[in-house]
Protein 1
Amino acid sequence: MTARPAPGTPRPRPAAVIDDHVPPFANLGWEPFSRAAAVAIAEREWRLFRSPVDDDPPNTRPEPAPEDKPERQEGLWQRVGEYFWEGLDPGEKESPWTGMHDENGQIFDARQDGFYAWSATFISYVMRIAGARDKFPYAVNHATYINLAAAGAAPGLRAYAPQSYAPVAGDLICTGRDGSEKIKFADLPTAGSFPAHCDIVVEVRPGQLTVLGGNVDDAVTEKHVPVTASGMLAGPDGVPVDTRYPWFVVLQVLYEA
């Protein structure tokens, strides 16, 4: 039996260290990468943003005044900055961004916040802090890890058509947006990037998923997604059950625990 090291004894530094921006507990894999951790971290961030829920169709809520955007409020713009700093790999030009600053520390116009979108960065942050290490392709856009999963090039992800796999807590569901609403699973992997959005599943109930997404209404926001009796996002014909969002791929996350 191997003796347990005495408290305070430094552990050997693994070869696959990804990012020194990240706390040691996540960077060095102190605990297994688990669904429970990813869900708990996502829910913690949702509570930090005051637990908003938006089940309306997309783009139907009025744009708030700049001073009312959660991502620009004290305590929250800094948190978005932590998503960028810890969620992205070192050297990415976006890693210094916050909810209201560019890489030079300049405040950007709130009307231009779409250029500084952080929904994929939020997913990257959740996976990183949950201890994914080299099992997740951290990125500032969702298409990067969607395409890698579809190509079989992401060691910690598997891509499934929405009618072929029932997502469970900790998995990701993805939809096209801003002109990419017609993209289908059969189109993956695409030749280039495309606008998309992914949410993390935090609860599964009969007929419904509860999911959380970053940069939804400028916050971490909850929505509820209808599914079939067998838990699929789409029927056998591939048509999504949800009439609001064209969910086209499920990303199974291969957790260690």
Protein 2
Amino acid sequence: MGKIIVTGASGHLGTAAIHHLLDLGVPASDIVGVVRDTAKGAALAERGIELRLGDYDNAASLPSAFADGEKLLFVSASSMDNTLRIRQHAVVVEAARNAGIQHIVYTSFAFAEKMTIGLENVHLATEYMIRTTGIAYTFLRNGFYLDMMANEGTAAVAAGGTVISAAPTGKLNYVTRDNLARAAAVVLTQDGHANQTYELTSPEPFSYDDYAAALAEVSGKPVVHQALPASEAVGAMAAAGVPEGAAGFMVHVVDAAIERGEFADPSNDLVKLIGDSYTPLKAALESVLK
């Protein structure tokens, strides 16, 4: 059996996927982590993971990075330049084909055909590129990370008592990054996932009102959701310390899409893949507010 190659191995998702591979019984000697800086993968190397240098912006670095690989976990690029990302992804797909990779597991975007925020174009283009190779694929259409709402800053939100958004009624189908990493590891270690597309979102999407109520319950503090006009929401977030650019993106792009219903689709695919490992909203909040 060839090796499992994981790109973006020093990033949060790639690292978590490798940890889950090990947890599922894959020997460290069968896993390769592709990184741009081996120093950032030191913790993986300590666990026996082979690290190889590979850069989506340097096509010449990828043949050796993918050598002897059977399966590839292709973690999508992180650039905010969507046109650049498509070029980066094309380099990865071509290198995987030329290296003889037999199965590409790609981290795509949930319900991409229904979305209008721009990211969907990158992922749909990449899915079609992968199909051109004739290589077996699995498209992991990942939902947005629930970690954006359950993190080290959540306690401060609870203490402030107000959740600000520009989406008064829209639903969010967010899931934890760790759950998505677990799903990737499951697909990489089981048969039956070739040429499948999985929509990896929450089976029970929630509103900002639901989020505020769950945060209040878990924190034991009064928390309410305040829906504001977009311009006011950006200003309130900026006043709370969110960089203005990030606040603008969350309000004018993400919250607008939420209110249009683009993040409201539920799916049972993630639960089917990872079973009891699935982390619902309340449990995610409990994990960061211990």
Protein 3
Amino acid sequence: MEYFPKNLKDIRKSHSMTQSDLAKLLGRQKSTVSNYEIGYSTPSYETLQKLSEIFNVSIDELTNPPVPLKENGIDENNRIEMPLVSSKNGVKEDGSFSIPIEIMGDGNFFVMKLEDNSLSASNLNKGDFVLFNYACNIKNGDLVVVMLADNSKLVRYIYIQDDTVTLVASEKTAPLVCPLSDVTIMGKVEKALVGIDN
């Protein structure tokens, strides 16, 4: 369980949850969660199951090395064209983007180039191209692209509660909270594309 302490801490923070919040959900003391996150103690299998349910992740995601989001060393053969959508306000589309077909899954995709470093904590940086799936089920904690009422687009972790949306980039950037009616969810992140020439 070498990777569990950091994975738990990262997943907890990505859900904007404190150690006390998580302890209440587990029916434990805050010190128990703190001990998990510093590696002083390890949870039982039953607790791992409970954590996987709370965060909607697999036990493997809690205990194994994190899987890099970025794709590297892509074979350049058999490419497919898809829409390249601009994140800049007022710009609808910038043409198309060509990527290798072997990294595609099922779905209706588009690509966006990131215009800032607000997601650098997730290894997504300015200039990276990100592959989004239009038709997908969105749940709290997913990384999505949204269009706001002013037609600007943001790539953020999304949390929906009642009629309010909270969009989170990182701990260094204040979350954006707005009415659900002001937000259009365009798609969910599938992959970041690195080392791909368009």
